[in-house]
Amino acid sequence: MYNVTFPKSFPKDFLWGGATAANQVEGAWRIDGKGLSTAEVVKKADDRRQVSMSDVTAETLKVALADTTDVAYPKRRGIDFYHHYQEDIALFAEMGFKVYRFSIAWSRIFPNGEDAQPNAAGLAFYDRVLAELAKYNIQPLITLSHYEMPIALTQKYNGWAGRETITAFNRFTETVFQRYQGKVPYWLTFNEINTGTWGFHETGAIDKHLSEKEQLQIRYQSLHHQFVASARATQQLHEIDPQAKIGAMLARMQTYPGTPNPIDVRAAQLEDQKNLFFTDVQARGEYPEYMNRYFAENGITIKMADEDQALLAAYPVDFISFSYYMTNVTQHDQSADSMGNMVVGGRNPYLEESDWGWQIDPIGLRITLNAMWDRYRKPLFVVENGLGALDKLENGHVHDQYRIDYLRQHIEQMKEAIADGVHLMGYTMWGPIDLISFSTSEMSKRYGFIYVDQDDDGNGTLKRIKKDSFDWYRKVIATNGEDLV
């Protein structure tokens, strides 16, 4: 007889924690030899429901390079984690973090991307961060590229559009793999790699002046170079530190058909395939047939070196991670007035939305976990999930029950997915401490369990204040996800 059993709780070694990015927290943009990054030339958005991270042209870049302040470029100042890392990590430890996901700023190690020697002061900073994490037994999960490549590579090669950037990146990855051998069990290559189809912020390639067809060509070519660089990084890590694991990272955007009409179902399937294309390449090691057709029908030609396909096949990632904030609705005749969710999909009438128009769909997380587990049969890791909100500091307190409700609902669905049989490694919510928003460069869009006293103009004491959600998450971790009240 076949005995049916299923897990009813999170595994004992489940990795609870939080996630940040260097360009959103570190600050110290002109300290200790750091070079300017692509994130630090993106201006703050004028409208919080309109993203600004790809609005970079040759003209705006010239203005940004001439500006020696952080007034229009809040990611230059972050929340000064560079000088507060000990305090912040101690607060993470107080919550009981098992893992902390952060990024190493490439431009802090190689300020110009191709420097003759790595920047010793930059490496020393991450030495200190890792030592502080080790003091509290918090495992590091490090992202190698989180929208912060050296701007010098944009100027020289137009970012990832130039194949030369592969060599520069893999020199960076080899440097940090060797430096932190035995100290970092988990690595990620490119953060939300699929957002490279949106342009500059992820590819470092300036293409706003081009036609849509030309943009598609340069973006997918840039992404191919990242696929190759990811495979080479996987090869490097496996040779340098065989015990460590390396994963892909996707902005997961599960899409539902707008109606049961087969035309809409097919449109949604195509949209989902375009989202999963990136993990298909990084996990399966080859370009899927459906994208070959898409390239042919859109006049896109991917230039490959002779060894590229063999390299992709030989070095797939060890696990798959993804961010999850929303789901989308797709139909074949999508109209502009029905768009929502960062204008990348239609609104769902059954869902509520955040102050920034991002629709909230906890059950969609269970759906996508099952779909990705069925597709890849590789361990999964939810490395971003959170609620950006307009928190209010009142009498020294932030009562953020709305954030607790949001996270509880998503954690409940992760538990259900585990019961479904999904192999889920961990959960690093975004972001455990208030930081500069990726999409709009605001400070007002707060995600954290820890309030940071800083406004959108950079005014404030930078004092760290625990919100109500701080104690709640500490309880969640202490009970391994059993007490979510």
Descriptive tags:
Glyco_hydro_1, GH, alpha/beta, GH_1_N_CS, 15 helices, 8-stranded parallel barrel, TIM Barrel, two-stranded parallel sheet, 16 strands, globular, hydrolase, 485 residues, 14% strand
CATH architectural group: Alpha-Beta Barrel
Stretches where pLDDT is under 50 for at least 5 consecutive residues are none
State the helix count. 15
CATH domain class name:
Alpha Beta
Q: How much helix is in the residues?
A: 25-40%
Largest sheet: 8 strands, parallel, barrel
What coarse outline follows from CA principal-axis ratios? globular
Tally the structural domains: 1
Order of strands side by side in the largest beta sheet? Answer: 1-2-3-4-5-7-13-14
| Distance linking N and C termini | 39 Å
The radius of gyration over CA amounts to 21 Å
> What is the CATH topology assignment?
TIM Barrel
Family: Belongs to the glycosyl hydrolase 1 family.
GO biological process, one term: carbohydrate catabolic process
Protein name: 6-phospho-beta-glucosidase
Keywords: Glycosidase, Hydrolase
